[in-house]
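cache lookup: miss for this entity combination. No prior model stored, computing from scratch. Input as submitted by user K.M.:
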Amino acid sequence: MAPDAASRRDEDEVCPVCKSSRYLNPDMRFLINPECYHKMCESCVDRIFSSGPANCPVAGCRKTLRKNRFRKQTFEDIGVEREVDIRRRVMHMQYSQINRITSIRLNRREEEFDSKRAYDDFLEQREDIIGNLVSRIDVAKTEAQLHKYATENMQSIRANQAIEAEEASSFQARISLEQEEARLRRQAAREEYETERREIQAGREDFLSKLASGSSTDAAAIAREGHKVLLKKSSARRSEEERIRQKQAALRSSELKRGSNLSTADFAGADTGLVKGLRKIKTPEPEKPYDPFMGYVPDKRDYYTLQSYYPSQYLDPIRNDARMLAGGYNLQDYYSRTLLEAFAGLSCFIGEEVSQRDAARVTKPAATEGTALAAESGQGV
Amino acid sequence: MALSPFGSRSPSMTVHSPNTAIRLRATAAQNSVAGSTAAVAKPMPDGDRELTEQLNIEVRERYVKDKKVGEGTYAVVYVGHLQDDPSSRVAIKKIKVNAEYKDGLAMDAVREVKYLQELKHPNVITLHDVFSSKDQNLSLVLEFLPGGDLEMLIKDSDIHYGVADIKAWMGMLARGVWWCHENFVLHRDIKPNNLLIASDGEVKLADFGLARSFADPLFNMTHQVITRWYRPPELLYGARQYSGAVDVWSMGMVFAELLLRVPFVAGSTDLDQITKICEAFGTPTEDNWPGVSKLPYYIPTDKAQVVPLQGRDFFLRQFPTAGPVGADLLMSMCALDPRKRSTAVQCLRHNWWTMDPRPTQNQDLPRKSGGTQKMGDDLTRRGGELDEGMFKNAARQLDFGMK
């Protein structure tokens, strides 16, 4: 607002409630209340609402207003003011504390959605809601929806709020860090220029004094020497600079990494009633206790129980053979194996297994004649 | 099959099937593993040979060799992939024919094929296929394990691991060994460089070149198995009948090595190995190991030099990182008397596994690059050999001249 334009309009501005004009009261300030956005001057607000909540004095408006919610208007157009308030309420800032859900915080983040499409749908839905509220379509229904959403998603709303705050602060921190670095760089460059200038100066003086004291024959040699010293010094300086620059870069990248360590609310859960397409977040199952056998069952016998002794003329002498026993030979293993082999294959139906396997192989290149033949002979066994 | 915990064990799959031809055909039908040995096996009727040759060619053409990753006296290892899936990786171990055995295949290869095709378990290396090439070389298509082996991790001082990692590794090892024993297979060469690591961190028991199935009663087994540092005292004493307890001892030695990061009892000869074991765990006597003096190579010790059997506090002192319960488990794996040693099942039932700290998840286990090369080296080695330069040429077994 240009100052002279403002003053010109201010001249004939009149409070719609008490009709006093700026001409009579140059310090007049207008306030609005976000309940109904009716404009009135400060003195009217004081007069009407100091003793507690009262109805809006504008004819036809029955809204009950409170003094503490009056504030200065930000935008000249009251419609814009209202829309901004609604947007703020739906998405961001909260502005009221007393007995109502202050802000709905439809603040889902892109990372929380399955796809870009879902996120876009969400943004569109949010615009629809805002549009409804602004143009007063289905206000009651929309409000109810938002209210329900807010109560259901309190946790993720809070988490996203925290993330936003952190992002803001880390952005600030990065900006200040960069500024600090730039300042240091400038300082270093200045110092470097100074030292270089001084060294060149000193080298030249040294060179002159050498020339003055030395004989005329080695003048060229001295000149070459002086040049070489200068070169060596500047290359040493350059490598030093390089080192510093690398260090700074490393610092910066670590800083960035720290900054990007944010993660979204992990407990968003499934689709809420209002917002669709949220990424499903699985809570990790509690770790199962460690099974040393990893699912295999030791000593599983389907058809028999293993006994510790089977009388046998052939095996009995072994039970007393000290040498065999001392070597650790275990007859139990033999019993176990013999019985297992005797019962092995019961309830295994090769024919069925082969047909199952062949059914599974249908998609793959058909089995050659050879395997089919082999399979048949296998069944015969 | 669902009813039995023993996978695809059917009568025709058992090791001692009388009729080789039938077994071959059945195996080919089930998982098309075999077909291979046919080419070098006894001559068969014409129809059969054609069938097996056909199968063999079919299997052979399913794989493509990419790159050689290791070569030893006994085998060459290639990295390869499936013909129709270039993203798959397999290791192809090509056994050199006639390297030592002038007639027929090397025993190691036969053993490896014979037992690996029986064993399907996450902690045992998978044998995908076997085929023979045109010059009758046997090729084993094995699971590709790019994570190297446990020895590499133990020796690398840049890698730090804790008791939770050890627990995870030991758990996988114990499950692998248990699965072998549950299927009546003795591995007989458990040591850190036979424990290969898959890309997901899973430890897999490999190198079944010395494996055999549990012997029937009164059958002799050789005692010249298991790499010396991991060989149990009963084998050093020349026992010819033994059980899964030999693998459990090796497992205990691996456990101790994981804890200490150096081999626990590393003898330079077999005699030295016995001495070191006696010093560490106590001298075997008739009291603590009834019948030990009957073993062929048992050497009686002077009463004065007998080291008493080490108790629990020795293990606690020597292996503080394992904690009291872990030391208890280690002690049960290292009992001198094989009958007092825990079995693999008993080890897995120990309460060390379920107490804190919980074993590390596979994806969080320490790992190291360069595993493919290491796998190549590991798969080319002969069973029971130490590849330390110092003992490279030492005799594998000394005759003490007692018998």
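stored under new cache key. The first helix of chain B runs from residue 20 to 31.
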